[in-house]
Structure to design on (611 residues):
């Protein structure tokens, strides 16, 4: 397509003949390298799929690992009929959905307050939100571990080894960045809009629900997708705080139950990994543009 | 609100001031209440644990006695600790440099092709970033498998010898960096692509009229225009890479012989698995200086960008 349009321009402007030839070559090289990079970037997920469709016998045979001679869905059937796996999936789904709801409620309201209704210390708090967003979970899991045993001693509430503890913990990772993204989106809404609403007698809550949320909907969708992706993918907290098989979430469950000692059932591991990667991938496939808009707007962690 | 009221000179000044005052008071109270869940969350589950980590690091293993800098002195005397410091820096710095370079190069290729196809390529190249890291690292673990490595099969197919990806210290270090680069460079690509699109086309036209080569165009036009976004992205990534856990944990679990442990994974090994919570807290605190430096620069850049706009 592009070649044709460049070639079409050329006769009209013969002077730039060499330049357009350069362009054509630059284009060909670009496609060549893009194909190479796409192979590099897509190789692991594709290999997951290939392995998940093989029998154990074929996996351990010394044949071409990149080719499936007897495609089978046995790994999927085995895994989905296992009670463990369905429990992991349920735990992950409930945790992620609750975290998304909780995060969006806290952060949209707080971002509105910080972006529009200045109060004493609101600028400091906005900076504080940004700083919290830079604090990694690797710094917090050890003190949290100790705090949980303290809560158990004092209040008698056992937070350790329960999947629902993750609903309390994950917002520490998702709320700061969702708030940060939403502050950015809300700040870009013209002041005249909310001033008009206030003059018409709207309360602050009405201004938020009737004006800010609809106008900033793309931002809210982006923040929701990110929150879901982060909550679904979180690995350190569930690994540190849950141990019983019935309390694990999907990523930890796959790694701790399918890898038994030195025995690796790779067909099932890859099937589990692929199914674990599926929800974020499906959401991404449908809402890619929101995802990318949110990524470049919020300068998310990388 | 205050602006509107101030711009409207009609009405009774005294009455207006008092009602305005009341309104302001009410508004700030409402705003504070709206932000309260956020404040509580940050205080209880982020700020307090962060401070508590410092206190924990000064206790003995049974957490019964104050030992001051005892844990730190103990760490300084251990070879493994210095290995972890070395590996954390090597891992984070190398990975960020390669992510930035690959992201920059790929962003250029995507930018070069006609706009219609860009969305498709961009979508495809961002896939590694979307998959949960623990899951994609499992795929890499299987690609690196000592006996059935599909990568070694390809290498042997073209006449090279197989590589002990996770079995030998040097290669294991290479492997964890490779996986990190694979996961992280799509993010750089997206950021740089967005930045590339904001560089005015006229600058390139002017440069090519002046006879600039493609290299000069990148060096004198693209890089200066993108400097801010390159810095912010790299600093962000430095923080996250430095504090990484998933990749190293799943791929090598710190082995062989602790050669791939970074602060996060070693703190987990010592603090949770080894049961020495204070020592684990002390290990994880060593991330703070680098995080603080990076965070300061990011904040400075962001406020600078904010004041430009």
């Amino acid at each position: 397509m592009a070649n044709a349009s460049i070639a079409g321009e050329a006769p009209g402007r013969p002077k730039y003949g060499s330049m357009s030839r350069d362009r054509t070559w630059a284009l060909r090289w670009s496609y060549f390298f893009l194909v190479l990079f796409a192979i590099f970037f897509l190789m692991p997920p594709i290999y997951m799929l290939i392995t998940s469709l093989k029998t154990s016998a074929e996996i351990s045979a010394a044949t071409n690992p990149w080719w499936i001679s007897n495609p089978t869905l046995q790994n999927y059937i085995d895994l989905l009929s296992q009670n463990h796996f369905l429990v992991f999936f349920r735990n992950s789904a409930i945790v992620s959905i609750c975290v998304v709801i909780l995060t969006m409620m806290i952060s949209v309201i707080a971002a509105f307050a910080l972006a529009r209704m200045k109060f004493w210390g609101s600028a400091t708090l906005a900076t504080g939100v940004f700083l919290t967003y830079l604090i990694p979970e690797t710094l917090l899991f050890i003190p949290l571990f100790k705090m949980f045993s303290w809560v158990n001693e004092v209040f008698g509430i056992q937070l350790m080894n329960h999947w629902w503890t993750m609903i309390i913990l994950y917002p520490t990772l998702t709320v700061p960045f969702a708030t940060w993204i939403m502050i950015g989106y809300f700040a870009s809404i013209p002041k005249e809009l909310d001033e008009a609403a206030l003059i018409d007698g709207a309360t602050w809550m009405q201004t938020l629900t009737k004006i800010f949320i609809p106008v900033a909907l793309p931002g809210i969708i982006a923040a929701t997708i990110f929150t879901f992706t982060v909550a679904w993918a979180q690995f350190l907290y569930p690994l540190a705080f849950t141990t019983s098989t019935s309390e694990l979430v999907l990523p930890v469950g796959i790694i701790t139950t399918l890898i038994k000692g030195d025995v690796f059932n790779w067909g099932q591991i890859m099937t589990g990994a692929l199914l674990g990667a599926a929800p974020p991938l499906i959401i991404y496939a449908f809402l890619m543009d929101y995802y990318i808009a949110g990524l470049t707007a919020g300068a998310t962690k990388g | 609100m205050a602006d509107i009221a101030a711009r409207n000179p009609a009405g009774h000044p005294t009455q207006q001031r008092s009602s305005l005052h009341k309104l302001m008071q009410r508004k700030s109270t409402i705003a504070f209440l709206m932000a309260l869940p956020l404040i509580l969350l940050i205080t209880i589950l982020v700020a307090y644990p962060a401070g508590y980590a410092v206190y924990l690091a000064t206790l003995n293993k049974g957490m019964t006695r104050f030992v001051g800098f005892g844990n730190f002195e103990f760490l300084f005397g251990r070879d493994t600790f210095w290995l972890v410091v070395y590996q954390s820096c090597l891992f984070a710095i190398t990975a960020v440099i390669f992510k930035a370079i690959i992201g920059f190069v790929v962003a250029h290729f995507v930018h070069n092709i006609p706009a219609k196809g860009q969305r498709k390529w961009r979508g495809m190249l961002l896939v590694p970033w979307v998959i949960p890291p623990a899951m994609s690292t499992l795929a890499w673990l299987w690609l690196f498998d000592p006996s059935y490595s599909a990568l070694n099969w390809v290498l042997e197919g073209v006449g090279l010898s197989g590589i002990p990806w996770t079995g030998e210290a040097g290669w294991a270090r290479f492997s964890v960096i490779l996986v990190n680069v694979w996961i992280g460079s799509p993010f750089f690509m997206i950021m740089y692509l967005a930045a590339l699109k904001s560089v005015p086309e006229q600058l390139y036209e002017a440069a090519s009229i002046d006879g600039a080569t493609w290299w000069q165009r990148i060096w004198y036009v693209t890089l200066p225009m993108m400097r801010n976004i390159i810095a912010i992205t790299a600093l962000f990534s430095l923080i996250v890479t430095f504090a990484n856990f998933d990749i190293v944990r799943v791929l090598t679990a710190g082995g062989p012989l602790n050669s791939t442990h970074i602060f996060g994974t070693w703190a987990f090994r010592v603090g949770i698995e080894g049961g020495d919570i204070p020592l684990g807290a002390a290990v994880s605190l060593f991330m703070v200086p680098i995080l603080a430096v990076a965070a300061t620069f990011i904040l400075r850049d962001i406020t600078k960008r904010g004041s430009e706009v």
Remarks:
- Strands of chain A lie at 259-260, 263-264.
